[in-house]
Structures are given as structure tokens and as C-alpha cells.
Amino acid sequence: MTIEPLIKSRPSYGPVTVQINAKLHLFICTAEGQSALQTLIDAIPQTQRQLLVFSATDARGAVDEKGHSLLAEQVGAALCDAPLATAIYLSGPEAFMWDLRNLARSVGFADEQIQMCEPVGNARRLFCTHCYAITEEVSHSPQTCSGCGRLLLVRDHYSKLHAAYVGVQINAEDPAEIPEPEALS
Amino acid sequence: MRMSPKPIQSFRGDFTYSNSPGAIARFPFPFPEDEYMYSVNIEPHVTPGPEGSVFEFLFDIDEHYLSEMHERDLVLKENPKRCLAMPHMDQACWDLIERAMTSLSTDYPQHFTLQREGDSWTWENKLLNLKDSFTFGDSSTLPLPPMEYIGRQLQGDIALLDQRDGDLFLDAGIVTCPADWSLAFDAGMSFKEWHGPVPMAHGMGIFDRALKYLCAIPQGRPVRRLNWTLTINARMDTSPETYSEWGADRLSVTPENVADKVHLRVELQVLDRMSRSNALMFSIRTYLISLRDLSTNPEWAKRMHRVMKDLKPELIEYKGLTRYHPMVVEWLSQFDPAN
Amino acid sequence: MTIDKIRVRVDAIEQVAPLIREFQLVPVDGELMPFSPGSHVIVEMPDQPRSHRNAYSLLSEPRDAACYRIAVRLQEHSRGGSRFMHEQVKVGDELAITPPANLFAPNWGARKHLLIAGGVGITPFMSYLPALQRVGAGFELHYLFRSKQTGAYRQQLASELGERCYLYDADEGIRCDLGELLGDQPRGTHIYICGPQTLIAGVQEVAQALGWPTSHIHFEAFAAPQPGYPFEVELNSSGRTLAVDGDTSLLEALEDAGIAVPSLCRGGVCGQCKTRVVAGEPDHRDQFLTADERAEGNCIMPCVSRAAGKRLVLDL
Lengths: 185, 339, 316
Fold this sequence. Notes:
Chain A is an alpha/beta fold. Chain A has helices spanning 34-43, 56-59, 70-81, 94-106, and strands at 24-30, 49-54, 86-91, 114-116, 124-128, 134-138, 140-141, 143-144, 151-159, 164-169, 182-183. Chain B has one domain (21-240, 266-287).
């Protein structure tokens, strides 16, 4: 297995702060993610805030390829009704937050209007570089691809568009090599 | 000497690819010094450059043209997603068509001709036996989407970078002979994001400086740089997509075959501002030469030995040379007795 | 082909506002290139005792490679460039221009484009408008001017754009209420401002108070170099010393002495001409260097910045 140098495309998550000039504060999270936002939620007058909380099951694959999930519909409605000066605060699993960020951008929000908490859990969405299949909730590397079955090294190289890390076959040079899975951070 | 395209050779399977003495003579050897360090090393791509050199024109057409276009066809048939263009890049694709067709028909009139009457264009590519009439800017009048249409007629990979918010975004391209990067995964990334995996360079501020420089490239003043790696066999498509097919090649190197198996892979990267879209064209023209052919030039062989011997471990790892690097150094040492 | 300079001939000159003249430039040989909306060129003016080089937006249809049009406002405190264009340049004269470069391109992902022009700041939008109309983009033009000085093209714009064109003539007492304008825009709108620094700062301030995302606000200032006190500059490599007079920018003085310094905007914005300072204190007038870089005091943007004292030593 190779030791990865620090890869700069991996997102970093800074502290989330209130955007004071926003007219609406939109909090979107999973139940597990709400505690990270609670102090901020409490700091905003009720008339200026909106809170959407999803169960972990709803949050999975928050936006499917056709954008048809229940979650996407609910969030989509809230985003489309939001004024230009809206601040969005996200908390939950990493892929859930980036799906919502992509949805918000598609309806005209700018990146600086969207803040994300430290992701809940270490689960990663994985994009197989060989067959382009997505494998959800990956916690160890290497991971078997849900599409082609290859054993994938989970790299830190991250695509915001796919909201996923890239996976590359770990033993292509020597298929006899089957390394022990290691937990991802 | 100018290169005429020769019959199709293969970059896979039986690997019949070979360089003629003329192609060896014009090979863009990338090491100006005995030690290699990652750097921006960008310089103006002033054309016409030296006659017959790979720097003579904006797009270099050489003896491998037919072979590379054939290889590109094989890759795209296997995986059409190796070419993509986001909807907002349509204008940039047409800019590329204009830049490519005007350059090629001016620089290689024996192979390419372009007739323009307003927006009615007729393009003839005699090497590929193509003759198409279309309305400039109207993608429905081309036999293929604009990126794929022109990409299938140019040697080397092409990316079109959208410039916005002081950054460059990888929003279109045709990438069938990359040095281990995936257009499908990197699509939409910013300049720093798609360079994320490059070791060491980030802390040096190289990318900040390069980005500012690239964003300010005006029309008519392209720039270029050379990049390099090593490839086992004359394989053009060393993409992550097909890594399962070529990864094991690295185990096949032996002291007996190292000179013929290991190729120096040099990318001539050219950045050129597109007219109407303000996009930046990033062309990556790949040249392959076996160590044996390279060693026919004693100066190159000696310098190659010094560069390989002193290569930093991070770069050996990043470029995927770990398994066979010692054999390369050992074989090259015969040309550099003093070291 | 590599293009450094394009020779053009002045094909027509038109007074388009009391203080603004439009120049139609046609190529002396060959064709011009199409350009992207918001592009500018640097015009080289062969004045005596020294030449000037000023940046002007292209205001012609971007797809038209037959002719470029620029508009020049006569500046009260002109260092000579705009006065030369107004008083010396005649139809038939030849000038040299650079190929187009763009530091103010539209963001094609915008859901609506809100164009705010002040005076001669209408020029880059003249090339935006055909492109926006071609793709069917949503847009509004808000044009602030003083009809006794500027206001070029306003009748033409009003008739072509209809209700998408809003005119504010300060000389008629008509003002633009920025709060009202910015307060009522749909999400995904991008603002583009070209005009005097006061207009840009005004829009930015209102936008910030209204909670606009800063990445949706784009601007291009008239950042022509302003005159200052004369000083001397020494070149570290050769020890050579040049005199920079009050009406000459440091960059122009270097160029006049045959020293090539890369440049693009010539207005302290793009960062191309950044040069290391070995000794002496710079008078920073650019918008490029960060506060930290200014504090370190070891670099300067010679296109607009000068010496705070009598002498600078540059690493050239």
C-alpha cells in the first residue's frame, strides 16, 4: 500500500459562523448532525430561520441521479423559496452535505453562502475510476467496488461535483497482493 | 526535418510503435539540467519555432499521426466518457475548432485545407480522408459533438478550461492518452483541485503563481512547458480507467529488457487563450521514446542517468517508478562512467 | 502565430458624448480576431516627447473581426493619453494595439446579469450586450451618467433594449437608488460594475449590507495611472538609473528605456507587472497587492505605483 502525500483536493471544514447580513438562515442537517448547529440555531430569531432535519435513512443518497428523492424535493422547495440573501448551514455525513451544496449552487447560491460543519462520521462516497460506479458509506480501504468488484484503494483526491473520493484498483500491478483493510479517517 | 505520417502502428497489444531516426532527433528531451525539480518552467510558445522542431507550430503533427488517431478511436469506442464538454463550454469548443483548423491549414497545407465563406466552412483532412461542410457555431451541422469532432483530428489530449472567479475549471476535454489522470473524475475541478495529487509543489506557492500567470494569458501569446514521466511499453493510454490493464506491466521489467520496455514519456503542454469564450486551451501532446533510442544521443543518456539517480523519493513514488527505477539507473550508468 | 502587436488604422472618429470620442480601428493588414465580451486592448500612442500606452475596452460586436471600436473620455488630469487621442489622432492615422485580453468576462453560470455602468464605463457592456442577447440570458442595464459630459450611446441602447435599459442622468437630477435596485433581485443574479471607484465602492457597500454573496459582484475600475512627483529608479542588475517624471508611470519609464516588464491591465489590477523592490519606499496605488505584501514593502506594481520618496531600487 502506498503512503499518500497530503492531497489538497480533500475538503477541509472550518468553524461555522453566523452570516450576519443574511435575511434567512437555512439550517439543513441529519438528526445526528443537529447538535453541531444547535448553538447557531439558538442564536437566530425564529422568524429569520428555517430548520430541516432528516433521518439518516432519508439522507442517504440525498439527491439521486434524477434528483427525485423525497429529500431533494423538500430541500429543493426550501431553496427555491429562499431569498437572495440566504445563508445555508449544513451538518451531517460528508456526501449528504456536498449533495446539498451542489443542489443549492444549481439554484443560484454561491459557495460563500454555504457553510459545512465537520462531517458526521468517517464514511466516504467512493467513485470507481475504472467503471465510474459509486459505492456509498465506505469506511475502510481497500474497498470492493459495488460496480466492477475490483479492490479499490480509497484516495484522498476529492471531487466536489461527484461529492466523492476516487478509488483506484490497489493490486493491479500484482493481483496476488490483497492488503488488510484499514479504517479511514 | 518535417515528419510525414507513416502507416498505423499500435500503442497496445503487440506495441509496434517505433521512432524513426528523424523522430528521435526532434524528440523534446525535457531536462535542461542534471537535477530535476518540479517547477513552473513556463515559457512563451513563440511560433513559428525552429523549423522541423516540435515547437515549430501551435499543433505538432508528426509521423505518428495516423497511429495516434487510430488509438484514440479505440479508446473512445471502449469508453465514450473519455471525451466530455459541459453545456456552457460549447462556445469554447468552437473556438478550439477555429484555432485548430486555421492553424493546421496554414501550417500543414499539404494535409489540411479550410475554406470559409462567412459561417459556411468546408474542412478537409486529407490524412484521415475527411471532408465536411458545416455552419460555424452550429453544433447540429457537425457529424460529432464539437469537442470530439476536432479532438479526433489532433494528436495529444486537449482540455478546455473555463475561467471565472480568478480560477480555471476543467469543464471540457478529450483525454485518451493521459499520464494517470481521469477526466471523468476531475471534471469540473478548479486548478488547485485537479493538481491536488501532485506532491511537494503546493507548499512552494508554485500553483498560486502559475494560476495568476495562466489567468492573464492574452490572445495570440500561447505559453508552453514540458512535463515527463516513465511508461512501460509504448502505451499511450496510461489512464486510471485502464490501470488494471497496464499496472502489471511494471512487473515485467527486467535488466535484460529495461532498455526496450521503459520509455521516457514527455508531454509538451501548451496553453492558449480562446477568442470568443475567454477559455484557456490546455493541450497535452505526448511523445514516447525507449531508453535504447534515447541513448543514441550520448548527451541525453548521460543526463538522463544523472536525473534518474538523484530523483527525490516522493517523485519516484508519485510517478509510479518504484518497482523498476533501480534497473533504469543501472542500465543508464554505462553512459555516465564518471558518476 | 504569435502576435505581439497589431497595426491598425483609424477608420472613423465620432464624438459620441461631449467628452467622449469613439475611434473605429481597422487592421492595416490581415484580420483582427474575435474577442470575448469585456475584453480590452492596450493602445500605443506615439506622442512627443514620449509615447503613452492606455487600456481601452472594446465596444464592438465581439464576433466582428473586421473592426474594433474604442471610446476615449477626455480626462481632466490627463497625463497625455486621452488628450493625445482627442487632439492629435486623425482619420487615417496608424496606431499599434495589443491583442485583446479579458479581465472582466461575464459569468455564464449567472441566472441574471445586472450591468451597472457609470459614464464611460458603458464601454465593456457594449460588447456584453450582443452576447447576452444571443444566448437569451436575463439581464438589465443600469446606466448612470452626466449628459453634459458622458452618456454615450444612450438613445441607441434605450431603443434596442427597451425596458431592460434604465438611464440615470445626474445632470437632469435623476439618481439611481442602489438600495432599491439591489434589494429586489432574484437569487443567482450577478452584478457587473464599470465606472469610477466611488460607484464601485457604493455598490459593494450596499450589496454587503443586503447580504449579497461577494463572488457574484464583478467590477472593473478606471484605473489609469495618476500623475505624481518625479523620482529616480535604479536597476539593481546594471546599476543604471532612470528618471521618472511626474506624468510618466514607472512602467512607462521602464519600457521607454527598453526594459521589458510583462503587463496586461496597466491599471494595478491584474498583477502581471509585479516587480521586486530592493530599496526605497513604494507609494502603492494598486488594488492587487495584499495588505501583508504592502507591509513587507518588497514589491511594487509599476503600472500605477510610484516612489514615496525620491528613489527606488528595483530588482531588474
